[in-house]
From TrEMBL:
Protein name as it appears in the record: ATP-binding cassette domain-containing protein
Annotated ABC transporter domain residues: 5-235
Assigned keywords, A-Z: ATP-binding, Nucleotide-binding
Molecular function, one GO term: ATP hydrolysis activity
Domain of life: Bacteria
Gene3D superfamilies: P-loop containing nucleotide triphosphate hydrolases
InterPro entries: AAA+_ATPase, ABC_transporter-like_ATP-bd, ABC_transporter-like_CS, P-loop_NTPase
Length: 312
């Protein structure tokens, strides 16, 4: 079976700065594939090359058998792209915006009415379809944007951080909607720096950092890379830097970093059994005011592979 997307050896530099380095992956029909990485990891640059907005320095992109550089029209017709920036008309209603995009995509006139109604249902906005866009919340605008990308029935939907700046209710609705699309056979490329979203939506995940894919696999495969190590989140009151230095020397602790929120994150084999030693190690230096032990997750994998946290 032909893969829905195959990209290989993609690289892009801006001036002397390498934004994407030798990136390649495939997405099978109906598969949800995630690019997980912090801001600046190169996700948007990668997507821009996949959708033909940015010419790669090196590499190839093939969408549903069509080579993007040799036959851009055929390749792009198979992709629905939801950019980070929302490009909609504030004075038009939701329905009118979608009709406008139908004309832009050259959908046959006769097909427009029914397709717009189908897509309004798909994104859960049928009841607000006659309200002007400038009365929509950020999340509703994002859902119309997703709808616009679906109008021409693409084989692959590419979304660039679709839940950034979106209220929790719309976030849930967006994720539920994407899961339904995948269940119905759509292939998805989902990028985010939110681990929970990528874990929930994606069958396979590439962890990206500094422009490269550092690991790829199912959630299960990626989490297995860190072995049985637990993550411990400590909130400390006192001399946190000294406490951190001491904790780095504690047996079993493989990683210890300070998070932006001011807490300390440890990765430790069998961490849940280490808590008494953790507390006694910082005794007299800082008080432990809160503690959370989390079993291995993608955050731990990211930390293990890159030495950094995803969000901080
Ligand atoms: N037009 C540009 N000119 C110069 N540097 C750029 C340009 N676009 C991106 N970069 C740099 O390339 C790197 C990758 O950026 P990119 O936007 O692809 O990352 P990202 O993972 O999508 O992050 P974000 O979610 O913040 O967009 C960053 O270091 C960024 O500063």
């Amino acid at each position: 079976m032909t893969d829905t997307l195959t990209c290989a050896n993609l690289s892009k530099s801006y001036g002397g700065v390498v934004a994407v380095r030798d990136v390649g992956f495939t997405i099978a029909p109906g598969e949800a594939y995630g690019l997980l990485g912090p801001n600046g990891a190169g996700k948007t640059t990668t997507i821009s090359m996949l959708v033909g907005l940015l010419k790669p320095d090196t590499g190839t992109v093939v969408v549903g058998g069509a080579d993007l550089s040799a036959d851009p029209m055929a390749a792009k017709a198979k992709i629905g792209y939801v950019p980070q920036e929302i490009a909609l008309y504030p004075d038009l209603t939701g329905r009118e915006n979608l009709r406008f995009f139908c004309r832009l995509f050259g959908l046959p006139r006769k097909a427009v009415r029914a397709r717009v109604e189908e897509v309004l249902d798909l994104v859960g906005l049928a009841d607000r379809a006659d309200a002007k866009l400038d009365t929509y919340s950020g999340g509703m605008k994002r859902r119309i944007n997703i709808g616009a990308a679906l109008l021409h029935r693409p084989e692959l939907l590419i979304l660039d951080e679709p839940t950034v700046g979106v209220d929790p209710q719309s976030r849930k609705s967006i994720l539920d909607g994407l899961e339904r699309l995948v269940a119905d056979g759509m292939a998805l490329l989902y990028t985010s720096h939110y681990m929970e979203e990528v874990e929930r939506v994606c069958d396979r995940i590439a962890i990206v950092d500094h422009g490269s894919i550092v690991a790829e696999g199912t959630r299960h495969e990626l989490v297995a890379l860190v072995g049985g190590a637990d993550r411990i989140e400590l909130t400390l009151d006192g001399d946190v830097d000294t406490a951190l230095a001491k904790l780095r020397g504690l047996g079993g602790v493989t990683e210890a970093v300070r998070t932006a929120a001011g807490s300390v994150r440890l990765i430790a084999e069998g961490g849940r059994y280490l808590l008494p030693s953790v507390i006694s190690t910082v005794d007299g230096i800082a008080a432990v005011t809160a503690v959370e032990v989390v079993e291995p997750d993608l955050e731990a994998t990211f930390l293990h592979l890159t030495g950094n946290t995803l969000r901080d």
